[in-house]
């Protein structure tokens, strides 16, 4: 079995026990990824009943992705 967890943000990532939990997930073979802007659109189009609405990314979606991608990489080193 393969498990990939994609998240929009990391919450409480500064906490040592959260960092250790992320490392344990990776050590167990789980892939951890931060959602890219395109992933939000895919998720909206695939899993949300939009009722005529389209997904509108927030202004700093790309910056958030880059920030959390860097933090996750630092934690998993």
From TrEMBL:
Record's keyword terms, sorted: Hydrolase, Metal-binding
Pfam families: APOBEC_C (PF05240)
GO biological process: cytidine to uridine editing
Record-level Gene Ontology MF annotations: cytidine deaminase activity; metal ion binding; RNA binding
GO CC terms in record: cytoplasm; nucleus
Taxonomy, superkingdom: Eukaryota
Keyword Manganese: no
Keyword Hydrolase annotated: yes
Protein name: Putative C->U-editing enzyme APOBEC-2
């Amino acid at each position: 079995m393969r498990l990939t967890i994609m998240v929009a943000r990391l919450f409480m990532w500064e906490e040592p026990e959260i960092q250790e939990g992320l490392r344990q997930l990776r050590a167990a073979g789980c892939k951890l990824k931060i959602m890219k802007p395109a992933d939000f659109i895919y998720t909206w189009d695939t899993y949300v009943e939009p009722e005529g609405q389209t997904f509108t990314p927030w202004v700093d979606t790309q910056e958030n992705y880059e920030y959390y991608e860097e933090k996750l990489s630092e934690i998993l080193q």
